[in-house]
Amino acid sequence: MGPVTTLTVLCGDLKPPGMRDVEAAAEVRYTGEAGLAEALRGADALFVYDFLSTAVPGAWHAADRVRWLHIASAGVDPVLFPALRESDVVLTNSRGVFDDAIAEYVLGVVLTFAKDFARSLDLQRESRWQHRESERIAGKDVLVVGTGPIGRAIARLLRAAGMRVTGAGRRARTGDPDFGTVHASGELPRHLPWADYVVAVAPLTEKTKGLFDARAFAAMKPSARFINVGRGELVVTADLITALKTERIAGAALDVFETEPLPPENPLWTMENVLVSPHMSGDYLGWRDTLGEVFAENFRRWLAGEPLLNVVDKKLGYVPGAV
């Protein structure tokens, strides 16, 4: 594999940090969505730093030499379109950057629900002293749907807090070091009724799209809370809204949505039993620097002809492993 001479970086106005060594070794073309097609002509590799962009499929016709595409996220669905899937282009992601931060977010919203922090803040603003009792989280049952690195980090942290955690993944198994028991996600409705908290963190594939629909929410206990830190398209939003309005489930914490930004008129914004955050559960201080470091290391490996990190199986839609 010869050295890369031209690298296109889809970044908009915000360029990735830590690119000095990369710029010294290649011609780097920084571009926004409008100039992507032109910047792809003659390029050997593409770095999708703007990982929320959906511009790559429409510009791909100009990618006449690209052999490697790296995306600055764990999810690869924005770039896993048919032409790329069927090509010989190597796809890598930024797996590992967000694991612990997202796990902390999940623990945080679990505690927010259990300790009724949102209500405490409302009462504080009203200068009202209203004593309440809160829930314990120790001993509560959690089902983590998605058993990749992020799901495993969530399982470890919630277990450390005294919660009982099992997983749901591509294949059922026992004796898993982080989950103990892993159920098959294809049989999800069978395993939802006992969970106090259901955490969605599965990769978005044809099999997981719309996984949480009316049937899934109907299978949950009325006291269950649903947390989505995976992909918005894992959920049929209308079915979730109905489940919340009818108190089929007790609440939801949502960091990702089918449409982002979440439209102002969406009822999720104003529901008392819903926590909304703007796709930020993995974004900690310094995360952009870490993304730049991950790409720079893979770029060094590319130039040296060494095996790349985080190579995605384009048929599966994620880096192979125990999921």
UniProtKB/TrEMBL annotation:
Q: Which Gene3D superfamilies match?
A: NAD(P)-binding Rossmann-like Domain
- List residues of the D-isomer specific 2-hydroxyacid dehydrogenase NAD-binding domain: 108-281
- Give one GO term, molecular function aspect: NAD binding
Signal peptide range in chain numbering: none
The membrane-spanning stretches of this chain are none
Q: Which Pfam families match?
A: 2-Hacid_dh, 2-Hacid_dh_C
Q: Where is the D-isomer specific 2-hydroxyacid dehydrogenase catalytic domain?
A: 33-312
Task: State the UniProt keywords alphabetically.
Answer: NAD, Oxidoreductase
- Domain of life here? Bacteria
**Which PROSITE patterns does this UniProt record tie to the protein?**
D_2_HYDROXYACID_DH_3 (PS00671)
Q: Which PANTHER family match?
A: 2-HACID_DH_C DOMAIN-CONTAINING PROTEIN, D-ISOMER SPECIFIC 2-HYDROXYACID DEHYDROGENASE NAD-BINDING DOMAIN-CONTAINING PROTEIN
Q: Which family does it belong to?
A: Belongs to the D-isomer specific 2-hydroxyacid dehydrogenase family.
Please give the name of this protein. Phosphoglycerate dehydrogenase
Q: Which organism does this record belong to? A: Amycolatopsis xylanica
